[in-house]
Amino acid sequence: MEHKKVLKQTLYGFVEKKVKFQKDEVHKDINTLINTTVDPILNDWIQVDKFELDGSKLADHLTEVIEKYPSAVPWDVKNAIRNLNGPISSLGKTMKDHIKGIIRTYTEYPNDSRVEFRNKELGIAAQQLQKDAAPYYQKLSDLVTLQNELYRVIANEANGAKAYKALVALGVDLSEVEDANPSLPAVTKLSVDPALLAQG
Question: What are the residues whose beta carbons fall under 8 Å from the beta carbon of 98, sequence distance 6 or more?
């Protein structure tokens, strides 16, 4: 596509797609960081295998009762028994995921949340994760700022071709939109490096 024919909507879509991809990558990195740090602690601390097994056996026995006496067991009891098996059989995973969710919130919003665990090692890890995850959350913030600034650049131009030239002049790699012209001079400055869109 010739850049003279590029629509503003195409450029908005391009920026949105690139920012979403980068944000998804950052979220994956955050999850990996949290899982790598916290999983070994949780695996040692949360020991509910016996409860899961006992709960699963109980649900199986109660299901047999339902099958043997279908008319005698009220609907609400049947429903409770059916709901029992899933949550109990995956109790350990549910507990671990819940704790990781608390830690994720704590690392993302350090000023708005507090974390207190009875497991001292987990509390120390959560505090360290808050520091370790800070650059990732800064990158997410920078991506939002960059997206807003690029949207403003596109909006301020008369048409797609001028917006395309303005983005290229700011250093945005539009090669995927096609027909990039690297020799255009810079017209204005962005507060966040547009190369952030291309990091992988």
Answer: none
Could you identify the residue written with the tokens 């339902």?
66
> 153, exposed or middle or buried, with CB in 10 Å at 0-12, 13-18, 19+?
buried
Which DSSP string corresponds to 80-122? HHHHHHHHHHTHHHHHHHHHHHHHHHHHH-TTT-----SSHHH
Which has the closest alpha carbon to 172: 27, 29, 3, 28? 3
pLDDT of residue 187: 54
pTM attached to this predicted model: 0.75
Give the length of the chain.
Answer: 200
pLDDT of residue 56: 83
Q: How many Å apart are CA 31 and CA 100, to the nearest integer?
A: 9
* Residues 6 or more apart in contact with residue 179 via CB below 8 angstroms: 1, 2, 3
Query: What confidence tens digit (pLDDT) does each residue in 65-120 have?
Result: 888 988 888 988 888 877 777 777 788 999 999 999 999 999 998 877 778 888 99
58 CA to centre of own chain: 36
